């Protein structure tokens, strides 16, 4: 099964999370370059910020790099934070904001996520805004209302240069993947909310699914009408799995 031929270009966004040293990151890039054939699918590697300098040079041509988080502030006394300008300076084109791990472990609210997304855009980065419900919300059947409320808050004042990733928290790193129908239900609802905010431009925006995506399920999920790619954690760490996903989407 291949990715849809109409609509925005499919994006395979790889989130390494807190994995790989800088040395390992460059070796991974060279290994990918050995087997990667550029096709219709866009690939972007969201590496730890410390590994971004030089990473793009080790990757095959056309593969983008991005950050996993960004400061909401321009610059200054914010110890430990990485600014949008710093990410741009090392060739990042994307940055993840509002990942559920940031929301859960670092207390990031929708307002903070929106501020980060706006700051990213101010420096020419495309934010990948993550939303999605936890297990209790899913079990109550309230996943659409919950996710759309989170989305609206997280897109407050955010311009249309944005990617949305729907990641049900119960499917992240658990091996429990949402069905393609579950992914499409939320992706369609998200598309509707994007239409309210951005009008006709919403049709060209990418809505990704994330949560235990791997080579054997990526194609069926990305074949859904409103799913335009995937945000991949665990299966992004091995080059063979990434090549398997790219090939599955051809
Ligand atoms: O950012 C990626 C998501 O959290 C999904 O992670 P996973 O593919 O390991 O489930």
Automatic annotation (TrEMBL):
GO biological process: gluconeogenesis; glyceraldehyde-3-phosphate biosynthetic process; glycerol catabolic process; glycolytic process
Taxonomic superkingdom: Bacteria
CDD domains from the UniProt entry: TIM
Keyword check for Isomerase: yes
Entry annotated with the keyword Oxidoreductase: no
Pathway(s) annotated for this protein in UniProt: Carbohydrate biosynthesis; gluconeogenesis; Carbohydrate degradation; glycolysis; D-glyceraldehyde 3-phosphate from glycerone phosphate: step 1/1
Example of a GO MF term: triose-phosphate isomerase activity
Keywords: Cytoplasm, Gluconeogenesis, Glycolysis, Isomerase
Coiled coil region boundaries: none
Subunit structure and binding partners: Homodimer.
Protein name: Triosephosphate isomerase
Gene name as annotated: tpiA
């Amino acid at each position: 099964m291949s990715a849809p031929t109409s609509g925005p270009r499919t994006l395979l966004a790889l989130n390494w999370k807190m994995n790989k040293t800088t040395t390992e990151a460059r070796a991974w890039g060279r290994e990918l370059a050995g087997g990667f054939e550029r096709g219709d699918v866009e690939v972007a590697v969201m590496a730890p910020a410390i590994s971004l300098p030089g990473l793009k040079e080790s990757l095959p041509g056309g593969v983008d790099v991005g950050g996993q988080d960004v400061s909401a502030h321009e610059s200054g006394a914010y110890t430990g934070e990485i600014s949008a300008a710093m990410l741009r300076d090392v060739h990042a084109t994307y940055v993840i904001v509002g990942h559920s791990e940031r929301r859960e472990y670092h207390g990031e609210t929708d307002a903070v996520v929106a501020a980060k997304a706006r700051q990213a855009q101010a420096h020419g980065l495309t934010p990948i805004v993550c939303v999605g419900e936890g297990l209790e919300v899913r079990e109550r059947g309230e996943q659409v209302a919950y996710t759309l409320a989170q989305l609206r808050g997280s897109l407050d004042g955010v311009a249309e240069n944005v990617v949305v990733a729907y990641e049900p928290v119960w499917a992240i790193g658990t091996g429990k993947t949402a069905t393609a129908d579950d992914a499409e239900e939320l992706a369609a609802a998200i598309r509707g909310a994007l239409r309210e905010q951005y009008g006709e431009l919403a049709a060209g925006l990418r809505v990704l699914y994330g949560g235990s995506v791997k080579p054997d399920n990526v194609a069926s999920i990305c074949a859904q009408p409103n799913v335009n790619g995937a945000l991949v954690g665990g299966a992004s760490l091995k080059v063979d799995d990434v090549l398997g996903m790219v090939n599955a989407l051809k």
